[in-house]
Amino acid sequence: MEAELKEILSDVDALKRSSIDPSLHNSIDQLRLRVEHLASLAESAPVQRSKVKDMSAEVIDSNPYSRLMALQRMGIVANYERIREFSVAIVGIGGVGSVAAEMLTRCGIGRLLLYDYDTVELANMNRLFFRPEQVGMTKTDAAVQTLSDINPDVVLESYTMNVTTVEGFDTFMSSLKKKTFRSHKEGCGVDLVLSCVDNYEARMVVNQACNELNQTWMESGVSEDAVSGHIQLLIPGETACFACVPPLVVASGVDERTLKREGVCAASLPTTMGVVAGLLVQNTLKYLLQFGQVSRYLGYNALKDYFPTMEMKPNTQCSNNACLERQAEYMLAKPARDAAAKAKLEAEALVVEEIPLHDDNEWNISVGDDIELEESATPSTDVLPEGLVHELPAADEYKHASSLEQDTQDANSADDLDELRRQLEALNAV
Ligand SMILES: [Zn+2]
Questions:
Q1: Which run of H or E residues covers position 192?
Q2: Would you tell me the crossing angle of helices 395-407 and 409-428 to the nearest 10 degrees?
């Protein structure tokens, strides 16, 4: 770019020298000024950072991973660097998918596979990620451009295609199976598939592919009115698949494309989409790096700031054959799974018993009574200066609240189902 602009400058100079008409000199000078301006902009363009071989925990300003590796030091994640081994496929690079891709890129994910057939439009600018100068580019190309600048360590694969076509589905399947990134990996070539599409047809395609490949995936969605959304974990055979609990449109066999209303434009908010993308990637990180609890279903009602959760078991009458096969495999493996869980519990109990007692006490160290400690510790945390209150409940209050929650779970599940039904109806209206 810089070299080309310098060539244009010398061409302009040559043009001025050869021009015998002095009235043109002024225009040529104007042109030269504009090219000079472009050349200076090109020179000041940011330089992309070089790749980093190993993730370091060193606390220096130039380390892009110091804040992430701190999760390990704080005991949240056992081995953060493992994130570099994982491949995540994102289907649909729209309001949720693009933001999810950026979050995973910033977290240093090993490899991202991006699928979309659409192009960037000005009408997308109310959401995050894409920029006006990318209008007209395919979403996959624009995403690769931005993501590779943010973190060149991430391996990016872009698939500009529609997964709902026959050809697209074949390419989708073979790309998920490909093990070029980690050849010794068991199962598929990816660790997780994230569905960030905006229609049922595409969701059913992702569902079909993941059921066939026995691939765990997460589904996400935002309603047409922009004020609710959800994420859902789907483990073939273990949890309900997308066809197990069919949405109304699919159940009645109506082609959803015929339901689209002319001139009706779905609403969208960067806030709702950002929240859903955040919940989706938070659960992706928990799933991959094995910390915390991964949500099976988590809804988001923006009007009430209400987050319903629920579990959905597979439907033994599911219309998807691959789902029924996975269910049968899951049931067959039950005795082995139970035995492994029991062995783990026993091993943990043994570790507790085996904590060695020190008979020799060379330094005469004595440990105070537990009750005494508790009594002396309690007042120091409870007594606060006047006018101040605790932001969070104490551990015992929290425990009490959780057991109450357990008691009322049955009553809440009816509300949760109503909420889910409302969200599905809103989605159906797209
Ligand atoms: Zn199913």
A1: strand 192-195
A2: 70
Q: What is the mean pLDDT of residues 263-290?
A: 93
CA dihedral sign, ordered 305, 274, 79, 297:
positive
pLDDT at 12 over 60: yes
Closest CA to 287 of 218, 351, 211, 231: 218
* CA of residue 369 to ligand 1 center, whole Å: 56
Sign of CA dihedral 299, 301, 307, 311: negative
**Residue of 107, 210, 244, 265 with catalytic role:** 265
Is beta strand 297-301 parallel, antiparallel or unpaired with respect to 228-234?
antiparallel
What are the pLDDT digits (tens) for 164-201? Answer: 999 999 999 999 999 888 888 888 899 999 999 998 89
> In this predicted structure, what is the pLDDT of residue 301?
94
Cα 326 to ligand 1 centre (Å): 9
Tokens of residue 188, six digits = 């598929």
Q: 248: number of CA atoms within 13 Å, CB side?
A: 12
For ligand 1, the distance from its centroid to the CA atom of residue 225, given in whole angstroms, is 28
Cβ within 8 Å of residue 147, ≥6 positions away: 101, 102, 105, 112, 154, 156
pLDDT higher than threshold 60 for residue 405: no
Residue 42 tokens read as 């090109």
265 among known catalytic residues: yes
pTM of the model: 0.72
User: Measured in angstroms, how far is the CA atom of residue 250 from the centroid of ligand 1?
Assistant: 13
User: 285 Cβ partners below 8 Å, 6+ apart?
Assistant: 83, 107, 291
Ligand 1 center to residue 325 CA distance, Å? 10
